[in-house]
Known about the structure:
Elements lengths: L10 H6 L1 H4 L3 H17 L2 E2 L2 H8 L3 H11 L3 E4 L2 E4 H39 L4 H12 L8 H11 L5 H17 L5 H19 L6 H6 L20 H11 L1
Antiparallel strand pairs: 1-3, 2-3
Amino acid sequence: xxxxxxxxxxxxxxxxxxxxxxxxxxxxxxxxxxxxxxxxxxxxxxxxxxxxxxxxxxxxxxxxxxxxxxxxxxxxxxxxxxxxxxxxxxxxxxxxxxxxxxxxxxxxxxxxxxxxxxxxxxxxxxxxxxxxxxxxxxxxxxxxxxxxxxxxxxxxxxxxxxxxxxxxxxxxxxxxxxxxxxxxxxxxxxxxxxxxxxxxxxxxxxxxxxxxxxxxxxxxxxxxxxxxxxxxxxxxxxxxxxxxxx
Length: 246
């Protein structure tokens, strides 16, 4: 069962699909309704009577058109699974896995840099500091753009939909101009904290995250948006200061 109220339908792919193009036009309406059931339940029934009930179509119509739709589905355990939608699920799962892996690698690098900065601040010897600096230079530098950061953070917080992602991306780009010393990931976490602080304070009257970011409500009541001044000039110290400020 899918939690999203929509599913992907690529117009150009749909129009040039030979399997769809070869079926009668009246059968396409049943195909779309079968896809809707697959999106909601994961699959749709193979039994014509049950399928007619689920799609809210007449049994006569389903009996006439279902045979034209069957080649686009895979029959498993008495249920029909859309070949197109199952393939899209696999692609989305792989893309999500790859994005999470990149995010974890980036977070690990930042965490290592912060721990090194803390050790240096606690009074490590000069030679040790030099060694730490050399180690930091060898850390992988995988930078995420605003779209990637927005997608990852929205996914991790269960925020779905294109408009939601665009709203967060716009807020991320806007707020990053006011926090030039922070990385996009840090600005993203700052925005998430701002939303949940408002939600905790206002309860049901806080509204949803999309409204919060579209209307730039994070501009209200969130002090210390700029980074504090640090004694050192290195990026790790400034990063640590920003995280502590948050």
